[in-house]
Amino acid sequence: MTYSPANTIWVLLGAALVFFMQAGFAMCEAGFTRAKNTGNILMKNLMDFCIGTPLYWLFGYGIMFGTGSALFGWIDPFIMGDYSHILPAGVPLWAYAIFQTVFCATSATIVSGAMAERTKFSAYCIYSAAISLFIYPVSGHWIWGGGWLADLGFHDFAGSTAVHMVGGVCALIGAKILGPRIGKYGKDGKPKAILGHNLSIAALGVFILWFCWFGFNGASTVGMDSDDLITSAGMVFFNTNLAAALATLVTMLFTWLRYGKPDVSMTFNASLAGLVGITAGCDAVNPFGAAVIGICCGFAVVLSVEFFDKVARIDDPVGAISVHGVCGALGTILTGFFATGISTMKGVFYGGGLKFLGIQLLGVASTIAWTAAVITLVFVLIKKAIGLRADAADETMGLDRSEHGLVTAYSGFSVLPDGSLAETEAVPVSVSADAKPAPRKAKEKSPDEHVYTRVQIICRPASLESLKNAMNTIGITGMTVTNVMGYGMQKGKPEYYRGTPVEVTLLPKVQVDIVVSKVPVRQVIDTACSVLHTGHIGDGKIFVQDVENVIRVRTGEEGYDALQSDE
């Protein structure tokens, strides 16, 4: 066989980009969940790739691409057989093998997000292995390995069904068997929003995935050594980007109208939904078809997330079921409408009739049936053998600590009871017996001596910097600032997170404590009011209290002297 440098490099570049999608998935899942489970989620995304790689080498590749039958390839440990029948022109075996390995890992990693924050790590490793070992390879053989769906003409160019829907179906079954997270549903059955702890990380994960998707879809042409392949790759890139952009725009506008404000995390999901949806037909549709697929996925992901959250009551922290399962199936089916006949059968809207659409529907249905049946058996066996779900106490504490002995994945931060983060500062302290200052006896106050007053200011976090500057201007030399939660007479303000009302009776506030003696208390109060006042609910409150005495620990100074700068 004569190898093509251009085709080989193109396939290897695609493999590298698809591998880097693991980082994107890890960041998305970590950002959409609580801080106390971050280490556990990162570990899972690392291990599903590391578990899947040797298993796919041992058996998965042979099952998927062997010529055994229309239903099953062959058992070929270590990829020792002849695969010349399936190799793309000019691409060596091991280049194509690594390209397919990273696709397999992508399917396995989708499941972790839907089952996040309550799954035993040992159970995760087992079912991740099952997906890579035989669930993904068997359906992959049907679609890409010369199996019965390929013979019928089923078209799934880069894996809307073969990769994403398989992962989404596994996620759906797993999340249903596992049950919702503690506190997700109230006694009335209504869902409660459990906010992700870091949307910045989630956003970066989305951008990484979008970037890598050009390799996921684009490199699936498996060649760049002819004019036809170059033209096809350009169309694939354009369609991939267009569908994702339009899905994102649609979801932003749809959630804006539906919830009163554009939902951030749902819009992130929409970008991935558009990418998943176009993956099946990115080579077979024109830009108009890609646009329609993106628009449909933009609506579908919102309605699907709401359905599983509110109606089916299946807790999916990251929306993996909707993004990968629902939009994967939807994109594959829509290819049956919009395929132009460039590289496959024509769709309904291009004179192809209903035959191709019927094949697409059959392929989706049969893949769902296979995946659902086998993964259900796997989950049931795991549940009976070692247990699938973490103990309630471990779930409440966080899987980072219970599963991995990791106090927190964020050095310099502590995890609060609700799973969110609070910044801490570790200061090295050296204590010796003779370092303690001699205490000074507090003097009895006479009418003309100083009075110490504590001014406690509760305000919005955004107002803190202006308040600090104003206090420095009038001579305040010290203050204590604390991040707190609270509410006033208005009981907070209703908001939505991923379509679920957020109980925001406790709003984030900043508490600033100042003890004054030299600076007039009235001046401190008036200055604070002038800085914080906007006329809107939530400006804050100021409390004034008498202080009996003040002691500077370092020097032992008390009273007025302890409040003054010692420069």
Descriptive report:
The longest helix has 33 residues, at 227-259. The protein has two domains: 5-404, Ammonium transporter fold; 445-563, Alpha-Beta Plaits (2-Layer Sandwich), CATH 3.30.70.120. The strands form three sheets. Strands 4-7-3-8 form a four-stranded antiparallel beta sheet, with helices on one face. A two-stranded antiparallel ribbon has the order 1-2. It has a two-stranded antiparallel ribbon with strand order 5-6. It is elongated. The termini are far apart. The protein contains 16 helices and eight strands. The protein has 567 residues and is an alpha+beta fold.
Summarize the structure.
It is built from 16 helices and eight strands. It has about 575 residues and is an alpha+beta fold.
Sum up the structure in keywords.
567 residues, alpha+beta, Ammonium transporter fold, Alpha-Beta Plaits, 2 domains, 4-stranded antiparallel β-sheet, two-stranded antiparallel ribbon, 16 helices, 53% helix, elongated
